[in-house]
UniProtKB/TrEMBL annotation:
GO terms for biological process: tyrosine biosynthetic process. It comes from Actinoplanes siamensis. The keyword Amino-acid biosynthesis does not apply. Gene3D superfamilies: 6-phosphogluconate dehydrogenase C-terminal like domain, NAD(P)-binding Rossmann-like Domain. Keywords: Oxidoreductase. InterPro entries: 6-PGluconate_DH-like_C_sf (IPR008927), NAD(P)-bd_dom_sf (IPR036291), PDH_C (IPR046825), Preph/Arog_dehydrog (IPR050812), Prephen_DH (IPR003099). The lineage of its organism: Bacteria, Bacillati, Actinomycetota, Actinomycetes, Micromonosporales. This is Prephenate/arogenate dehydrogenase domain-containing protein. SUPFAM superfamilies: 6-phosphogluconate dehydrogenase C-terminal domain-like, NAD(P)-binding Rossmann-fold domains. The keyword Ubl conjugation does not apply. Transmembrane segments: none annotated. It comes from the Bacteria. GO terms for molecular function: NAD+ binding; prephenate dehydrogenase (NAD+) activity; prephenate dehydrogenase (NADP+) activity. Belongs to the prephenate/arogenate dehydrogenase family.
């Protein structure tokens, strides 16, 4: 595993922190977890570090910051002076521009930002992970190699492109699903009856919605509130629904059809790939509805 023999994972009791802990341990590193959880080997608030945490950081080859951004930025500010000059810092925040600024200001060595675009309880093989190289170095390459070795598809980007893309991939996607759930819940039809009468699109959207509402609210709220492009994404989503409603209520068949064609033109070759993927999803949905 190169020179990454000792690692500290800040927030290592959380889902993403645990994933990174397993990754580093599987590669042979000795990993210490710093977390507010009392059973962590380095318990306590990482923004007011204990002497034991500072000592561990001084000797660590890799420091993972698996914290919500509101905590990650002050943690990086407080702890960076104690990192070894050749250590690699890895942050896992879902929004990157503020982290990039903190790293540029405070971190002396190499630094990498990652955003696993899947829930940590899923197998990483074949799944996407965004990577932002805040500051290059040997440790960055080593961590990226470890991630790729799990079968993860690593997409290298920069902080601005990452946040712009996540405004569509995460902010608009999650907002549309939550709005869908809110609307359905107010239509006066029993959820069980809706499930019994479900079409494949409804069943698929409901499955996605159920996964979100069964997750950690703070994670999804952070995605909505901290992305600088999030407000524009939600505004476009709301405007798109207003346009759709206006076209339908006006009986404007031409405008409705043009809207579909415009979306298809934007997607280009992605549309055909998405339709193939949808066919596979609907095959799974059919098996699910049979078991009801």
């Amino acid at each position: 595993m190169g020179d990454l023999r000792r690692a500290v994972v800040l927030g290592g009791a959380g889902a993403v922190g645990s994933m990174m802990k397993r990754l580093l341990q599987a590669a042979g590193a000795t990993v210490q977890v710093a977390d507010v959880a009392p059973d962590a080997c380095l318990p306590g608030d990482v923004t007011t570090p204990s002497a034991a945490l500072l000592a561990a950081l001084t000797h660590a080859d890799c420091v993972v910051v698996a914290l919500h951004e509101r905590i990650a930025v002050p943690a990086i500010t407080a702890l960076s002076p104690h990192l070894a000059p050749d250590a690699v810092l890895v942050e896992t925040a879902s929004v990157k521009q503020h982290l990039a600024a903190a790293v540029r200001t405070h971190v002396r060595g190499s630094a990498l930002g990652i955003n696993p675009l899947f829930a940590p309880d899923l197998s990483p093989s074949g799944r996407n992970l965004a990577a932002v190289v805040h500051r290059p170095g040997e440790g960055v390459g080593t961590v990226l190699d470890l991630l790729r070795a799990t079968g993860t598809r690593v997409i290298v980007t920069d902080a601005d492109e990452h946040d712009r893309a996540m405004a569509a991939v995460q902010v608009a996607t999650h907002a549309s699903l939550l709005a869908f759930g809110r609307a359905v819940s107010r239509l006066g039809v029993d959820a069980g009856r809706l499930g019994a009468l479900a079409t494949p699109p409804y069943a698929t959207l409901m499955a996605l919605l159920a996964r979100i509402i069964g997750g950690e609210p703070a994670v999804y709220q952070e995605i909505q509130t901290l992305n600088g492009y999030g407000r524009a994404a939600r505004a476009e989503l709301a405007d798109a629904l207003r346009v759709l409603a206006a076209d339908v209520e006006a009986g404007d068949d031409t405008a409705f059809g043009t809207g579909l064609k415009d979306i298809d033109a934007f997607l280009g070759e992605e549309a055909a790939l998405a339709r193939e993927h949808c066919a596979r999803l609907f095959a799974v949905t059919r098996e699910h509805t049979r078991r009801r």
